[in-house]
Structures are given as C-alpha cells and as structure tokens.
Design a protein that fits this description.
The chain is of the alpha/beta class and 277 residues long. Helices cover 54% and strands 13% of the residues. Strands 3-2-1-4-6-7-9 form a 7-stranded parallel beta sheet, sandwiched between helices. It has a two-stranded parallel sheet with strand order 5-8. Helix 1 links the parallel strand 1 and strand 2. The longest helix is centred in the middle third of the chain and has 29 residues. It is globular and about 55 Å long. 42% of the residues are buried.
C-alpha cells in the first residue's frame, strides 16, 4: 500500500467523492470527511481495499473542533496526512438587496472559514513533519465575478487570496499549496444552493447539467497538480479565457464583454416566479 495519505472535506458527494475515488485508484490512503456521515461511510466502503485503506469521519468544517479531532485521529491511525483538500462548499445566488446577512454569514462560514480552519489545523502538523500539501477548492467565480452571486463570488475570491498568501508563507517549510478554480461542472451544486429567485436556480441547474466537464475530469486535474505541486488548477478553457481577458483588457471594455456574456443571468434574474395552480 502507498504511504501517501489524503484527507478530503466534503468527500461524501460531488467533487469530493470524485477526488476520493481518484486518489484511492492510485493507491493512496484516503480519509473522507463530510457533514453527512452516512455519505462519508458509503464513499469509504466503495474505495476501501482493506480496513486501513480508507477512513470516514463526520466533519463539520464550521467547527474547528471537528477538524482537530480528524487531525488527531489521522495522526493516531496513519501517523498524519500528506495532503489535505479543503473542498466542502455551498452556493448562494441573489441580488445584493435580496441576500440576507444570514446567507452571507452561512456561506462565508463554510466556503471561506471552513478552508481557513482546515489550513490552520493542519499547517502546524505539516510543519512538524517537514512536508505537506494544502489543496483549496475555490471557483472560477473567485477570479471572474458574474452578477447576482456576490456572496459566493466574495467567498471564493477570498479563498484564492488565502491560497496565494499561504503559497508564499509556507514554501520555506516544504508545504505546497494548490488552488482549484473550476467553472460549472456536472455535480450536485444545486443541492446546496440558497436562493429566493427561481430563475437563478433554473439557470444554475441548466449550466451545471449542460457542462461538458465532469467531477471526475476536475479530479484528474487536481491529482496531476498534487503530483507536480502546481499552484493553479483552472480546468475550464472558457474560464481561462475570461480570466485572461480580465487581466489584459481595460476595465470598461472587460465590463462590457462580461455584461454581454452574462446577459442570460440577467434575464434569469428578471424571470417572474411561476404561480402555483
């Protein structure tokens, strides 16, 4: 069995599950954490070659004590971890005046502070062992910001900023950092989406279902980045192109182009709710 050990938050479904399966296929020992303990156990049972090949934990990333408990158990069972993937995340879409502060606090607590907690808990352990790799799952929305997703965009942009900071801060300790910025891909994003706007929910579901990219393909790119210790993972060509435009175009021209490309979002946001019969 490989000596390599990885812990994935939000590993019970979606990209987290695809990551668990991908690394397990390469002989890694995989620990799956998820708020839904039953989902974590199902993934563990699917990928486990033997009793020590995979572990499952109920892990709420909004609770630092949960991550500390997992880190302590991994040290006890496996002597620690080599890679930690801060993947757990949720989504929110609404106009700025319609999104409640409760929604803002919820999404920041999971998407941003959940990543912060994972980095904070595991970094001292990585420093003690002289190596480690933090993989923080952000989004293309952390680099290019579509309308009506202010809370989601802000949370993912902060994950990018955190990751860039840690890449510089931790390099001298032998700790690598990767930030993953996918666009829409076929996963269960809609399950966690909070919105009071049915048009935005329909649009999100349509973009997810029609994406040519699967969670497994994103997981392949993450695996390659871990093996080569890459910082950026931008699996969508369209996302790469949009980010390039943002970096090279004058702001007014970039804004005009983004408004043109996101016209469908605006139509969806203005779509009246269906009346119940």
């Amino acid at each position: 069995m490989s000596g390599k050990r990885i812990f994935v938050t939000g590993g019970g479904s979606g990209l987290g599950k695809a990551l668990a399966r991908r690394f397990a296929a390469e002989g890694w020992r995989v620990a799956v954490g998820d708020l839904d303990a039953a989902s974590a156990r199902r993934v563990r049972d699917e990928i486990a070659g033997d009793a020590e090949a995979a572990l499952a934990f109920r892990c709420d990333v909004t609770k630092e004590r949960d991550l500390v408990r997992v880190a302590n158990l991994l040290e006890k069972r496996w002597g620690g971890a080599d890679v930690v993937v801060n993947n757990a995340g949720v989504a929110q879409a609404d106009r700025i005046e319609d999104a409640s502060l409760d929604d803002w606090q919820w999404i920041l607590d999971v998407n941003l502070l959940g990543v912060v907690r994972g980095c904070k808990v595991f970094t001292p352990r990585f420093k003690r062992q002289g190596s480690g790799h933090l993989v923080n799952v952000a989004s293309m929305a952390g680099l290019v910001h579509p309308p009506f997703m202010a809370a989601y965009n802000a949370s993912k942009a902060a994950v990018v900023a955190l990751s860039e900071t840690l890449e510089s801060e931790l390099r001298e300790h032998g700790i690598a950092v990767t930030v993953v910025c996918p666009g829409f891909f076929r996963t269960n994003l809609g399950k966690s989406l909070r919105t009071g706007n049915p048009g935005l929910r329909e649009m999100t579901d349509r973009l997810v279902s029609r994406s040519p990219l699967t969670a497994e393909q994103v997981a392949d790119r993450v695996y390659e980045a871990v093996e080569s210790r890459e910082f950026w993972v931008l699996p969508h060509f369209e996302g790469q192109a949009a980010w390039l435009l943002k970096r090279v175009l004058p702001h007014a021209l970039y804004t005009w182009e983004m408004n043109r490309q996101t016209a469908s979002f605006r139509r969806a946001a203005d779509k009246p709710a269906k009346r119940k019969p």
